[in-house]
Each structure stands twice: as structure tokens, then as C-alpha cells.
Amino acid sequence: MRRFAWLSLVLVGCSQSVGFSRGNMSGSHDIAMTDGYVFVTSADTNDLRVLQLTVPNSPQRTYVPAPNPLESLSIPTINRPTSLVIDDQWVGGLLRHGSYVFASRSGGAEISIVGADPSEFREVSRLATPGPVTATAAVKLDDTTSRLYFATFDGTQSTLFSIDLPSAPNALRALTSAQRTALIRVVVSLGSDAVVALLVVPPLVARTSDQQPFCDTGNHCLVVGSRQAGGTNGQTVMLDPVSFRTAVLGFPGPVRFLTTHNSTATDPQVRAGEHVFAILDEEKCGGSDCGGVIAVDTLRADSTSGGFHIAIDGTGAPMLPLDFGASLPVGLTIGVSRDLNSTDGGALRLINQVTMGTTVTQVSAAYAAVGVTTAANGGITFFDALRMMQIDGNDDEARAQNAVMISPEGYPAEYITGLDAGTDVNFHAQAITVADGVWRSQRVVAIWQAIISDTVLPVSGRTTSLAVPASVLGRVKLGDLVVFRTGSAACSDARITAINETGVTIDAVPADCPEPAAFVIRAGPEAPFTIFRESAPRYLGRAKAGDEFIWTEEVFVRLDGYNPSTPALRMGFGFDSVTSPPPRDSVWQFFIASGYAPFTFLIDTNTVGCAITQLPGTALFDEVRRRVYVVYPASNAIMDIDPALAQRVAVGVSQNTYCYQ
Q1: Could you tell me if 410 and 530 lie in one domain?
Q2: Contacts with 455 (C-beta within 8 Å, 6 or more apart), sequence order
Q3: Which of 588, 591, 569 is CA-nearest to residue 432?
């Protein structure tokens, strides 16, 4: 079972600063931020609404009013806009917002171009695309030109296009439909893999691919994420749109979303575009185990070793995908500190509620870069985006607890010969050590002569050569037991005498099995204990009496103090021999408490000033105002959160948090 500590972001009582401003959206699927404004889709009404971030003499925001001040401004667009991008521009490593907001919808063959300046809050132009749009990105090339990238997919062919547009809205308005269409250029055709994510990244000094300069000065690069049908495979590449050279980004699977970060003046390790963050596509394996958030370092690529490599985390090892439990990440944004050393002039500060035993302490810390992820279960998680690690709020060390022995019938057993604490033959949790944070909180069991073949395997006739799947064969040892079945009845044991590449050989088919139909493999007396855990992969290994079982193969999360030489699990089987074997399927069970609590919180839906459901979507980090904006599509709302006042606690109070519907 995956265990997470939550907080509720609560605003209590009328004395708190609860803001409320109504934009009357319907279908708020996406948000995008320009200088001082957040644009939000209203797909059901085929328009955009605009939240003004700076209101004179007020800490709150308000929606830009329509000419009728009783209504919020409605900017008509294409039908059902669901995706927004801005033609951002990097100047000296800092992001500057451009001239336009581009509104599209998945599968639609048109894009609205909306003015980003308050004097142009309207649809400036509309672009007909050569096919259904699957992804967009934009960049302002200079003071006169904005470029839109868009990918289309017609069911068999994916194509990446670009169009250069005048940055002056009046000049764009003057173009006819035919003139706009003539400006569209094919960048590259991508075959049958659909493009699902596009991201413009700025040039980076000393960036190379195969030791040659690559998107290092002058021009931007485009990151293109594609996936095959079903999401099981895909690739993400960085494309130089001038030379058309490409370099692979070494994500462990296809991606659903891409983002990057700005520079910070106080920390040379944070350079704009040096890291590309991705939400992994969980459809690769059909669940959250292959999802999460991960980053790639885009400084040096080597085509012989997979292109750009996974970013290095604060422990010096390749970053692990950030895990959000059984829930799937939805939104992702990265914010950097403008002044890490200041008390209030730009530092990103978080208040972490650190728990040790029953003691809870508030710890305020400044971060050079903070990532914010929203998840489908309503959780909002902050993580350290410089060190590529989760922020831990639990100072308790991981431990084994609640050790019990269970009979094959499922009843607690007072005594079963087996695991040992080193002093007697009873099972004690003190005989087990667990590395801090590397485990999800879950059950672990050691089973006496367990079935290790997972499923019943077929057999044809009375043969001593048995085919065994490779996934099972790696668990098998000489001396293990084969138990044949005829119908529902089990036969006597056979013993494995040889193991080959495709299966095993047994000593003989038992005489009481005239027509065996299937078989299972059980752990034999040479290594009778089989260790399983609750989460995948379930099988951990085998052990015998007198062994010290050590498991080191996987890490759930790396925390400060992580030591790769410390085993994730160490279990002592402390006696020399078993003189009275217990019944088969006797279980020794204990629970691992991970010693880890991420900086994750929930919005308290009852006290934020408007009714929302726990289904957050896109997140944006406003580095100027040090705020986080999160859209809630099912509630047609935007939450405005002060990250410095959010607290990872069970129940807390956070001032200056507002809801806008």
C-alpha cells in the first residue's frame, strides 16, 4: 500500500483574506500566463476569459470586465478551445511573454490567435491548419516576428509545421486567409507516431550533441514528444529548426507533457532550458508504476549512449521518476528564485512541517527552483527542482513493524520455526533493517516453500522435461519441487535436477500421477523461504535458514542522506538449520513504514470561498508575484496559492489563498 501524508489548505473564518471573483467560465481546461494576466479556456462557450493579476490596492485578482461591467470579458475563439500556448521569448535567460495567445483543441483543424496585450484582448486572426492538431508551441523570435509550431495527425501520418507571423497585431490582421496559409511550412514528417507534446527551449551556452555545438547560441530548439498508438512506446527528441539536427532525450518512456524553467540570477546551476521536465505516459505499462515526473539534462548529448541523459539528483545519481502514489500527475510547472538569499525579495520559501515521532516542527527553507505537480486525486506536490528530489517531511527513519506469524489457514501462529532475531526462533521486527525512504509503505512476507511459479503451468504427458517461462525460471533453484496436478488433485513431489534455458528437468514423474495435466513449482528445502512484497515487482528473492537476506535492486525515492551502499532491506534468518519444518505456505509478515512524507497537500473545498472538486489540472508558477495558479476543470475555477504559506500538515491555515470561478 502506498502511503502519503496530506495537508488541507484551509481558510477558516471570515477574518481570513478569502477572495472571490467570477468569470463564468464553462469548460476551463487550460490556462496560460502573460505579463500580468492569466488566460483560461471556456470551451463550452467557445471563448477565453482573462484573470487580471495586478489589481490596484488589493491583494486579490479580478477577471477583466466586459464593456458591460456586470460581465467578465469574453474573447470569442474557435469552437471548444482546450489548449493554450504563448509566444514566449527568452532574453538573457529570463522569460518574457510575447504578443499572442494561441488557442487550439485536440483534433481540431484550426487555431485562434488572440492578442496578449490588454489593448488587443480579442481574436486577432484564425489559422486553418492542414490537418487535426495534436500539439502546439510558440516562441517570439524577435521584436517583429512570432513563430507558431503545431503538429497534426490524420490517422496515419504525423507532420510538424511552423508559421512565422508578424508580432504586430495590426500587421497580422492585414493578412488574408490565403496569405496566412502560404506562410505555413513543413518542418518534418514523423511517420505514424502522433506528436503529443511540443516545447520551445532557449539556446544554452556550451550545449553540444556528439561534441558538436547544438542549439548553443542564437537560435532556440524544439522538443518533440511522440508516442505510438496505445502509448506503449514513443520517443522525445530535441530538434534544431535551423540545421534540422536532432538529439534524443533519454526519458524512460513516452511523455504526456513537457516543460522547462527560467534562469535565476543567484544560482549558476539554474540556467534557462538546461533541464526539460516531463510527465511520463503511464499507458506504457497501463498504470502509475511507469508514470511520474522526471527530468533530462540538455547540456550534453551522446548518440552512442542514448542522447541527453536523465538529470543527476542531489545524491549524485540519475534522478528517479517522482512518484505520486496510485494517482496520475496531471499538471507540472517549475518556478525559480529571483534572489535565493533575500528574505522577501524573490526567494522561493516553503514551510515544511517536519515530523519526528510525535513532535512536529515548522521548518522554513529557501529553494533555488521548485516544481509543482497536480495529481488526479486532488493532491498538489512541491518538490526540489534543482536537486531533482522530493521534499521529505518525515524525520523518522524507515522501520519494520507489526511482525506476525500466520498459519497456512490464515490464523495468527504463536510459534512457527523460521525467522530469527538472533536469540531465539521467534520472529521479531528488530531482526529487519530498512533503508530510509527507499520503500513504499507496504507489507512484506516470507513464505515457507511458497509456490514460485505465479500460475499453474501446462504439461503434456509423463515427461521429465518441463517448459518454464523465463520470468519464473530466474527464481528456480536445483532441488526445488514440482507438484503435478491431475484435475483438481495434487500428486506427490518431484525434484528438479537440472535447469536449462527453456525449462527444467525432474528426477521422475510420480507414480500417483498417471496423466498429469499441469504443475506448479514450490521452493525446495535448499532455499525454502520466498520473500514477496505488496507492490510490483512482488517477488524479491529466496533464502535459507542461516542466511542474511539482502535486497538492493530498487529505490522508491532518494532522500537526503541516501547511501547507495546501504541495502534497501536486510533480513536475518538467524538459525543454522530447521529441525521441525513448518507446514507449507506458513507466512512471516511485517509492515514497512517508509519514513517518508512528501510535501503534498489538498485544497479544503469547504473553506476556499467557492465550491471546487478535487480534480486539479494545469498549474502555472508566477515567479514575479510568487504565486501558483491551478485550474480545476470540473469546477470551472482557478486557485491562487501562496507557496510560502502552504504547509504540509494534516490540517492547517494558509492566508492569501483565493478562488476565482
Answers
A1: yes
A2: none
A3: 569
Q: Where are the beta strands (DSSP E) in 260-379?
A: 275-280, 293-302, 307-310, 329-336, 348-356, 359-367, 369-375
pLDDT digits (tens, 9 = 90+) for 281-324: 987 776 666 789 999 999 999 988 889 999 999 888 899 999 88
Domain shared by 500 and 613, yes or no:
no
Pick from 460, 474, 626: nearest CA to 539: 474
Q: What distance in Å separates the CA atoms of residue 368 and residue 387, rounded to the nearest whole number?
A: 9
Q: Cα(72)–Cα(80) distance, rounded to whole angstroms?
A: 18
Query: What's the distance, CA 281 to chain centroid?
Result: 9
Amino acid at 371: G
What pTM was computed for the model?
0.85
Closest CA to 345 of 270, 264, 262, 260: 264
Cell (9 digits) for 517: 495435466
Out of 574, 593, 612, pick the residue that ends a domain. 593
Q: Are residues 217 and 259 in the same domain?
A: yes
Instruction: Name the grid cell of 495.
Output: 525434484
Cβ–Cβ under 8 Å, residues 530 and 474 = no
Helix, strand, or coil here: 289?
A: helix
Question: Is the residue at 1 inside a domain?
Answer: no
Is position 194 within any domain?
yes
422: confidence class by pLDDT, cuts 50, 70, 90: very low
Structure confidence by residue, pLDDT tens digits, 30-70: 999 998 999 999 999 999 999 999 877 776 788 999 988 78
Nearest to 469, CA basis, from 457, 480, 479 = 457
Q: Which of 485, 520, 555 is the last residue of a domain?
A: 520
Domain-embedded: residue 2: no
* DSSP H or E run through 171: helix 169-173
CATH code for position 169: 2.130.10.10
Q: With 0-12 CB in 10 A as exposed, 13-18 as middle and 19+ as buried, what is 538?
A: exposed
| Widest pairwise Cα distance in the chain | 93
As for how many domains the chain has, the answer is 3
Place of cell 504547509: 647
d(CA 479, CA 572): 23
Do residues 175 and 312 both lie within one domain? yes
* Residue (of 23, 17, 68) closest to 47 by Cα position: 23
Rounded Cα distance between 408 and 403, Å, is 16
